[in-house]
Each structure stands twice: as structure tokens, then as C-alpha cells.
Write a structure and sequence with these properties.
It is built from 15 helices and 38 strands. The protein has 733 residues and is α+β, with helices and mostly antiparallel strands. The two termini are 71 Å apart. The relative contact order is 0.13.
């Protein structure tokens, strides 16, 4: 309707036509002494008048257009149709970084609300959080945008470090299933590079037909410090009445800092025990050892903290450490978990008996191969494995990670050990270049009963066999072996230090071999531990050999006190019980949760998944779980503390197939999306042009309009007199 006002452009033309004057002849005497002071050429005057007329008509046309509210639309702006939009909000704990009076997550909330507000009428939206509780999501596309806004307003960043990849996969599936032509994806994140790990989907996941926008909610200044690791010596409390906790403090900032580190113990109320100041270089780390008297307490529980900074959640790291003098050893047999009320399984009977000799420092726990994926192997100093006939890929991967991360593994073979599976699962070198087996297993070698081979060529320089140096070496020659597994020795592996033969049989074949796998060590006995192939477990030398092997693997071992991460489930095994066992878990916020164990493939197992908070979890069970502490420490992932941003060039490869991909700041997200959805409104620019045109028209009108009246006429004699005066002559009378 306002465009009808364009017709007002005819008003100046009509006024001009109505007021147009016709020249009329007027009788007058000679004009030789008179002339108009403003003589103009008729053509030039007409051009100026046409310019004024054009400006006035254009002014009225633009005024009508301005009131009509014109909008500029482009292929990426001004799509009036409704859309299907999915918002992916990064809620990992790095989004709690505060700068400028607000956190990155608060900026993400404001930007997301502006985006939802800018969606065209009839649009539908889904909201997915990455790192927060799943129940906060709006998992399906809904036209109820008010629900999305309310969910945004009530959300908070979590304590986990979940990558964006799984959430982006959910968003891609939602948009792929949508029949609507207009699809939009919004990713609101602090652009931390660690959050985008695993997002190189290639052809596995596509965003075809989707307009993707990444909203940068991060801070330009990144200065963070964190307690990233806590370790304790396994025998720290064996010879003293205090325990030392080594804390690693990392400075992720661009300048060196002096950071105060404090140890506080207690569960509900913590007491300050020790404090030190450590100097950390820029983008570097330093370690400090804090000591705590153990007295008669079976466990040390508390936290190591530093002064709060812009990201306070990673300035506290919780600890729960047993201070008894035992070394925990996990025995893996061919059967299931051992019932403590009955005899040990036959295949590891000798191992269990030898490690449990009176006065022994070893605390052994028996499980089956199928139990390995459900255990936290980092809690054991050494794993001793008998023959594992049901070894599968999952159990082998667990053993590989354990050893590569610094664990110690002792392996025995036996008649039920399947050589092909051992070589395939434990002997192949992975992408890291490491294998669990020191050397590939060969054929089974069997001798006659009367021709059993003895041990020979003992490496008495190695800590395991140094006790047998000299005259005691003959004791090992009484060990007779009828069957063993040959090894494919590699001179290159020996030269590189990846394999060392500690003992050989009389025929030259390796009897005991040590190998390196990553940071860990493996000791392989090529015969059995149950007496079926060898008299080794029947000899008196078996006890010192086993004890020294386990001690050697555990002596330099440091127990990570903070290995459990937020979001990882807690699992317990209840061997010897077929009934449901109730477990009460008190979380750091004081809420008590109860879970019951269930039978899973013959294993009585309880699982607790609500580990969303960092802190100390208290465990209370009617039956003592397998190797479980009454207090468990759960911490944030220290990798999330590194706020290094994703290089801009990599962003395009992370959302393949998108029609367009752009990155904008959170402060302008709402306005930018409104412009894209509604187009660029030209009301303001047109008004500015109209004001400028009005000023120009007024100026030109004052310059072009000739003077009228007596002052507009001058006599010729006046001009002549003026020229003479300027020339210095006297004016005539």
C-alpha cells in the first residue's frame, strides 16, 4: 500500500505545469541602459531546473519505498520459507572458561537464543548438547520454539570432555531424515581443537543440502592452569608413616607462572595438610610432591588444588589411595572369577598359592579372560595370565592398552593356549608399532618323558635371576620341561631392546623372555604354570622366580590416583555369588543411588553410570566387590584443559557436503541470522539517502533560483562606472 505513494512523484511536475508562466510583451522605451544582472543561457537554466525537478520527484519515490519496507535478498539471505534447524551446543567443561564477565557457555546461550528468535515462522528446531546430561536435549525437530528457549535458559556446562563428533552425527541423521528443502545446522562451541577430535568423517557422514554455521563462543585470551595428574608410589607407605603424592601442574598460558599447590584430605570436610609453590614455564608443566601422614587410616582421600582461575573446574584433582603395604596382582585364568570360599581354579592354583604365602606383600585377585573388559586394569600393579583359551579381540585390546601404558604382564602358556589366536591378537604390531608378545609363537615342542630338557644359560645379571648367581644356578637345572612353545627370535628385536632372553632350555630354545611394549614390560614363560608341561611350579625355586618377577614389574610402577574420568561407569564383580547384590553409591553432591547386580554371561556384575560430577564417590555394598575400594575418585579429563583453538583451515573438512559453511562470532550471531532469514532491511539506508537528498535539493534550489525585485536589476552605467573605478580612473559626473 505504501508503494502507491510513488504516484506523489507527479506532484512537482504538476506544480511546475500549473505555475508555468507565459511571456507577455510589455511596451517599454529603450533598454540600452538596463540589463538583467543574472543573464543565463536558456539551455543551461533549463538543465538546472530539470535537475531540481528530478531530485524532488526521486525524493518522493524513495520516501514511498522506505515506508514500504524493502528487503534485499540473496541466495544466502532472505529465505522466507520456514526451515528445519538443529542447534549443537558444546557443553564440555572448557565452555566454563570465563572472560569479560561471562563464560563461553553463557555467550553460547545468548547466541542460540538469538538464532531461535530469528527462525522464520513455521520453522522447527532441535537442540542437542554435547557434554551435558542427555535428558536436557530436545532430541527431535519441534515447532515449539518456546520449549527450545526454556531448555537453553536452564542448561549448564557439564564436567565431561565428550567430543563433538557423536553429537554432530546425531544432527546429521536428523537433517538427513527431514523432507524439508531448507535445512540448517548451527554448532556453538569455543573452537577448542580437542573438542573436534574424530570429526573427520569423510564419506561416512555427510551434511548434503545443509547450510552450516559455526558460532565462535570462545575467548580471544586463553590463560589456564590445571592439576593434570596425581601418582603415588606403590610402596610409598611400606617404610614410612607418610605417603607422598606427586602432582603434575600444567600451565597452558603464554607466560610463566608461580602456582600454589595444596593437599587437602577428607571426604565431606577437607583439612589442609600440605602446600607448596611450583614455578611453571609458559605452555609447560612442573611436578611437586605433597606428603600426608597415613597413621592407621586404610585409605587417603581428598584433593589437590590450585588457586582458581578463569576455568576453575580443573584446578582441583581428587585422590583416593589405599595406603596398605600390599601389591595388587590380577590373576587371569581360563575359568571365571574365583569364589574366595572355595579352592582356586586348577590352572592358576600354583600362582595363587605362591603369591599368598604367609608374610607376602602381594594381594592377588582371580578373574577369567572374559572379565578383563569390565575391570580397571590400572588399579593393579601386575597382571599374571595363565593360558587363555577364550582370548578374544576385546580382552586382547585391554591387555595391549594396559601394558603400553606402563603396566607389567607375566604370561604362561599351556595346552589350551591357541597359538594362532595369540599371534593374531597379541603378536601383531599395531599402529603404535608395539606388540604384547616379545616374539611370535612357533610350534609346540614335545620331548620324551625321560628326555625332558632342563633350564640353562640363565641371565643372572637380570633382577629376576640375580639371586641365582653362582652356586644357586644349579637349582634351576632341576626344572624339567617336557613341552614348550618355540619362539621366532628376532636379532633386530634384541638389538632394539624390545626382547631379552632371560633363560634358555638345554636345547637352546628360549624359556623365559622379557619384552617391551610401549611404556610397559612383558615377561613370557614358554611353558605352563600348572605342572602339565613342566615341573617349574613344583620346584622350590618357583616361589622366588614368581615373586621376583612380579616385584621387578611392579617396583617402578606408579599408581595413577586419578585414572577414572567423568562419565566413565563404575563396575563391580561379585565372584561366588549368584544373587543380586545391592550397591549404594553416594555421589559428591550427597545424593545416594542404589544399583543391583545382574548376571551377565555367568558373571555377577553391578554397573553405575551416573558419574557426571568430579569428586569422591563412596561405595557401600552388602558383599565386598572384587578389589573395590570404599571410596573412588573421579576427575575431569586433563586434555580438555588445553584450550588451543582449531586452525581455521580445518573447519571446512569437518562438515563435508554442506551447501555453505561460515563462522561468525557469538556477539553478532542473532542479528546475522535475522538478516539471513529476513534479508537486509533497506528502511534505514533509504532514510539516510533521503536526508542527504533533502540537503542537496535545498542547496541547489538556493543557488539556482535568480534574484527578483529591484536588487536584481542593475544599470549599464553602473557597470561602466564600476569598471573605471577598478581601473583607477575618475568617474564621470
Amino acid at each position: 500500500m505504501f508503494l502507491a505513494g510513488i504516484l506523489t512523484a507527479a506532484i512537482p511536475v504538476i506544480i511546475h505545469l500549473l505555475h508555468r508562466r507565459q511571456a507577455q510583451p510589455v511596451p517599454f522605451s529603450t533598454l540600452m541602459f538596463l540589463r538583467l544582472s543574472h543573464q543565463h543561457v536558456a539551455r543551461r537554466r533549463r538543465l538546472r531546473e530539470m535537475l531540481l525537478l528530478f531530485l524532488r520527484c526521486t525524493f518522493l519515490i524513495l520516501l514511498a519505498c522506505a515506508f514500504a519496507g524493502p528487503v534485499l535478498r540473496t541466495p544466502y539471505a532472505g529465505g522466507a520459507s520456514s526451515v528445519h534447524a538443529v542447534l549443537v551446543v558444546d557443553a564440555s567443561f572448557s565452555m566454563g572458561y570465563g572472560a569479560g564477565g561471562e563464560t563461553s557457555f553463557a555467550r553460547a546461550q545468548q547466541a542460540a537464543e538469538g538464532i531461535v528468535q530469528s527462525l522464520p515462522n513455521g520453522s522447527e528446531c532441535a537442540l542437542l548438547f554435547c557434554g551435558a546430561r542427555p535428558d536436557l536435549d530436545v532430541p527431535e525437530l519441534t515447532p515449539n520454539l518456546l520449549q527450545v528457549k526454556r531448555t537453553l535458559a536452564g542448561a549448564e556446562p557439564g564436567a565431561s570432555s565428550v567430543p563433538l563428533a557423536p553429537t554432530l552425527a546425531r544432527a546429521a541423521r536428523l537433517l538427513a531424515d527431514s523432507p524439508w528443502p531448507n535445512k540448517e545446522l548451527y554448532v556453538l562451541t569455543d573452537m577448542q581443537g580437542f573438542a573436534w577430535r574424530g570429526s573427520e568423517y569423510g564419506n561416512a557422514l555427510r551434511f548434503d543440502g545443509v547450510e552450516a554455521v559455526v558460532i565462535d563462543c570462545g575467548s580471544p585470551t586463553l590463560d589456564n592452569s590445571a592439576v593434570t595428574e596425581l601418582v603415588i608410589s606403590r610402596h610409598a607407605a611400606a617404610a614410612t608413616d607418610e605417603v607422598g603424592i606427586a602432582a603434575t601442574v600444567r600451565n597452558f598460558g603464554p607466560r610463566a607462572r608461580d602456582i600454589s599447590v595444596t593437599l587437602e584430605t577428607g571426604i565431606t570436610q577437607r583439612v589442609r595438610r600440605a602446600s607448596q609453590t611450583v614455578s611453571t614455564p609458559a605452555n609447560g608443566a612442573a611436578q611437586v610432591t605433597l606428603r600426608e601422614p597415613v597413621a592407621d587410616a586404610p585409605i587417603v582421600a581428598g584433593a589437590v588444588t590450585t588457586a582458581p582461575d578463569a576455568l576453575p573446574i580443573d584446578n582441583t584433582r581428587y585422590v583416593a589411595a589405599a595406603v596398605d603395604q600390599g601389591v595388587s596382582v590380577l590373576l587371569v585364568g581360563e575359568g571365571g572369577a574365583w569364589d574366595p570360599s572355595g579352592p582356586p581354579p586348577k590352572d592358576i592354583l600354583y600362582l595363587k598359592t605362591a603369591l599368598g604365602v604367609g608374610g607376602s606383600i602381594f594381594r592377588s585377585f582371580v578373574v577369567g579372560t572374559g572379565d578383563l573388559p569390565h575391570l580397571k586394569l590400572d588399579e593393579y600393579a601386575v597382571v599374571v595370565a595363565g593360558q587363555m583359551p577364550v582370548l578374544d579381540g576385546e580382552a586382547a585390546a585391554v591387555l595391549h592398552r594396559y601394558v603400553e601404558g606402563g603396566g607389567g604382564l607375566v604370561m604362561f602358556l599351556g595346552p589350551r593356549a591357541r597359538i594362532e589366536e595369540y599371534n593374531a591378537l597379541l603378536g601383531q604390531r599395531g599402529a603404535d608399532g608395539n606388540s604384547v608378545l616379545p616374539a611370535p609363537l612357533g610350534e609346540r615342542v614335545q620331548t620324551l618323558e625321560k628326555e625332558r630338557v632342563s633350564w640353562d644359560e640363565i641371565d643372572d645379571k637380570h633382577p629376576v635371576f640375580e639371586v641365582f648367581a653362582g652356586g644357586l644356578a644349579k637349582e634351576l637345572r632341576f626344572i624339567r620341561t617336557g613341552t614348550y612353545i618355540a619362539l621366532a627370535e628376532s636379532p633386530q628385536a634384541a638389538e632394539e631392546g624390545r626382547m631379552r632372553v632371560l633363560a634358555r632350555y638345554a636345547d637352546g630354545a628360549p624359556a623365559v623372555v622379557e619384552g617391551r611394549c610401549g611404556e610397559g614390560t612383558v615377561v613370557l614363560f614358554t611353558t605352563s604354570c600348572d605342572g602339565a608341561w613342566s615341573t617349574l611350579p613344583l620346584r622350590a625355586s618357583f616361589l622366588p622366580i614368581l615373586h621376583r618377577t612380579v616385584t621387578w614389574l611392579a617396583q617402578d610402577e606408579a599408581v595413577p590416583l586419578d585414572a577414572r574420568r567423568v562419565g566413565e561407569p563404575l563396575e563391580w564383580l561379585f565372584p561366588g555369588s549368584d544373587e543380586a547384590v545391592s550397591v549404594a553409591i553416594t555421589t559428591p553432591d550427597g545424593v545416594v543411588h542404589t544399583v543391583a547386580s545382574t548376571l551377565d554371561q555367568g558373571r555377577n556384575r553391578a554397573v553405575f553410570t551416573e558419574t557426571n560430577l568430579p569428586g569422591l564417590y563412596r561405595i557401600d555394598a552388602r558383599v565386598t566387590p572384587h578389589n573395590a575400594q570404599p571410596i573412588v575418585a573421579i576427575n575431569v579429563d586433563p586434555a580438555e584443559s588445553d584450550l588451543t583453538r582449531l586452525p581455521e583451515g580445518r573447519l571446512r573438512n569437518l562438515l563435508p557436503g554442506a551447501n555453505s559453511l561460515s563462522s561468525i562470532g557469538a556477539a553478532h550471531a542473532g542479528a546475522e541470522m535475522l538478516r539471513r532469514h529476513e534479508g537486509l532491511k533497506l528502511w534505514g539506508p533509504l532514510l539516510a539517502v533521503l536526508v542527504a537528498m533533502a540537503l542537496v535539493e535545498s542547496l541547489l534550489a538556493s543557488l539556482f533560483t535568480p534574484k527578483r525585485g529591484p536588487e536584481g536589476v542593475r544599470t549599464r552605467s553602473h557597470d561602466i562606472a564600476t569598471r573605471r573605478l577598478e581601473a583607477g580612473e575618475e568617474a564621470p559626473e
